[in-house]
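Hello Y.,

Per our agreement to keep a running log of every chain we model this quarter, I'm adding this entry. I've kept the format consistent with earlier entries: sequence first, then predicted structure.
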Amino acid sequence: MRTKSLFIGGGWCEPVEGGTREILNPATNGILDEVGDGSARDAERAIVEARKAFDAGPWPRMRAQERAALLFKLADRIDAEAASLAALETRNNGKPLREAAGDVADAANCFRYYAGLITKPLGQTYEVPDPSILSMVVREPIGVCAQIIPWNYPLLMAAWKLAPGLAAGNCCILKAAEATPLTAIRLFELIEEIGFPSGVAQLLLGPGATVGQALASSHGVDKVAFTGGTATGRRILAASAGNLKKVTLELGGKSPNILFEDADLSIALEYALFAIYAGQGEVCSAGSRLLVQRSIADRLLPALADAAGRIVVGDGMIPGTEMGPLVTPAHLERVMTFIDSGLTEGAELLTGGSRLTAGDLARGNFLAPTIFVNTRPDMRIVQEEIFGPVLAVQLFDDEAEAVRLANNTVYGLAGGVFTRDGAKGLRVLRQLRAGITWLNTYHPTFNEAPWGGYKQSGTGRELGTWGLEAYLETKQINVNLNPQPLGWYRQGGSN
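Predicted structure for the entry above:
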């Protein structure tokens, strides 16, 4: 039991108000650990320490190479503990071990990417009309950055936030998700062992409604970065208005995956499954709407249902598991309400739709891969983010209708197209109102490329050079190389 699981001011501590939270294994709902559960008062402590570290400490004044050296060490330590971190992630989140292993590798590479990027050119000089003026632009850290992450990618989302924020010279306060803090705790143990300066990186646990709200509203915080649901994103944006802090929001999605009749159906079918069932569908960019050209529906849909029914669902730690449990019993119940809604509104259940309770599965939060057909655009299962292994199929006749259906959502995070006609594929992708798109693939994500969405899927971008710029201020500097009297005002004389 680790009640001392808040990392504030360079050391581990218990919450001021003494709260604790049991952390469960979603495959069994057995207790994995008990951790400290923080409050707004703990957030205030962390903000004070971060302000001291940024305003008077060494971190923002270090050379970029010095900060990079620590980030490289952290990446190496993550690689060295990859197997244990992946196992811890699977036990806490539920995803299959092979997915967790990929997340750990990506996390290490994210720290390594920003460690390298921060030593590259970040400024500019200009030729201006006055030859005596040297004009330049430099980039500087924003300050104290609050970073609030979700439970679906606990370690990877921590890396996405901390790596660019720390590389840029900011002091970061990470708030882990209530249900899945264990890999974040281990990450901060590594940060402590490596020797990051006090107050530079801090870890908070606790409810978003209190701890997250305190961070978002504090005038001592200069930036807040949040990944999670759109409703929570709105509250964070409103709370941030007090001091007009910088805000990055990576929010929900209801992403379309479009299958044209000329696609290689064997490949498209497998990707259709991967798009929605990877990560149990608990993925913001999941291909949760499958748009199928009507001419191939009779061939594709029976094969899709058969393949979904053969997905191996079970404990992510068991070799061969292809889809794990949902993260908590409460989230399972939420997803079930969407399934009930689909049936009530008249959609047809092609496969799945029920809990899996045979044998040991009865102890966990397992749900059969689910597919709805005969849907309408106004249905909740078509319009709202379910965040679970539930696929809504929509049929279309031609390219124009596919684009219209794809864009008929308040979200704009991701989208995919499958076709042998490359020109058509690119033409459709260009018309999708989404920030991340794929042609004849789905889900690949790269540290080098920007991540974020249009419309109510958020503001700003993470990853790539865009992710670093989100943690930097831009300052113009003009230097007079030949100071002379200005002669602008008359010196004395009569009026």
